[in-house]
Amino acid sequence: MYAAFGLTTGFVCRTHDVGVGLWSAALIPLIPFALGMVIGARREAGSWSRLIGVDAVAWLSRTSQHSRWAGSYLVSAIKAGFVALMASLAMSCVLLAATLFIHWNLVIAVYEALDAGAWGGAVLTIAQLGFLPNLAVFALAWTSGAGFALGVGSQAGALGTAVGPLPSIPVFAALPAGSPDFGAAALVVPVLAGVLAGWWFLREGENHFDEWLSIKIRARWFTATVSTLALGVMVGGVAGLLAAGLAWLARGSAGIGRLTDIGPDPLRTALFVATEVGIGVVIGYAAGPWLERQQKLREADLEPASL
Question: What is the pLDDT of residues 164-219, one digit of tens each?
């Protein structure tokens, strides 16, 4: 009905001088209308599952304990993968800011060579700021070692950079050239993010696969190793899939010729991020008990002495 009102309004209001697309008049108003409908229904229903006629609480109560454990384990693993990706992205953005600061003189030199004037420089700066989300994903691909393309046949990454002539865009001047002396050290960024995700998963307390495995097999050294490795594979896979999605959104074309290929390769980025995050998760989950003990010791030292 709302689309019909929009279609009618567009049909009545158009004149010989003012054209109105009837399809646009019918469909575009549905976007804010549908958004309001969903928000209102979610607020009234109290959960997203009830919007599609599913009472999640009642459904979970009818399932077995093993099913609830499996669901909690999978949900926590997905959350841990999201934690790992966000941590990797945040640390990559810190490195991006650092390289812009270090190579600031080269960035300024490109601005001066362009001589675009005050308005031209302002427009160029605003345009670059608009691409900051893309640059953040480029930084994530760079730190993972997967790298990103700046033209057909080029590759820029922590393990080495080999690109052809680039357009005179100031931010490109901050790109490390050649093989950086400490470029391989950047690969530790996704690993550290995995350590954080593994520690987070331990604090979540939802490793029901380890509990189930311990019941079936009495050799603790075996069950702990297998469950931790399985956790690393699962959380790393989630982080890799999310990184592939970001890489797919960030890549594209910036012109004709060589510049038709710009950005990270989704599959390559997923493999690198998944592997490095998985290694970090194994380390973080194994070191989690020690980290928790150190945290409790620090909290005990901060407490006032009892009288």
Answer: 677 778 888 888 776 666 667 888 999 999 999 999 998 887 777 777 778 888 88
Alpha helices in the chain (DSSP H): 2-13, 22-27, 30-45, 56-62, 65-102, 104-114, 117-130, 132-144, 188-204, 208-216, 220-250, 266-302
Paired strand residues for 252: 262
Helix (H, G, I), strand (E, B) or coil at 29: coil
Scan for tokens 């979610």, then name that residue: 42
What SS3 state is found at 149?
Answer: strand
Q: Which of 57, 14, 300, 76 is nearest to 201 (CA)?
A: 76
Mean pLDDT of the chain: 83
Pairing of strands 160-162, 149-150: unpaired
Reading the block at residue 95, the tokens are 């490195």
Tokens 């400490």 found at = 182
8 Å CB contact between 231 and 84: no
3-state secondary structure of 169: coil
| Three-state SS at 17 | coil
The SS3 call for residue 63 is coil
What is the SS3 assignment for 106? helix
DSSP assignment letter at 260: G
- Interacting residues of 250 by C-beta distance below 8 A, sequence separation 6+: 133, 134, 137, 138, 263, 264
Q: Where are the domains of the chain?
A: 2-60, 64-302
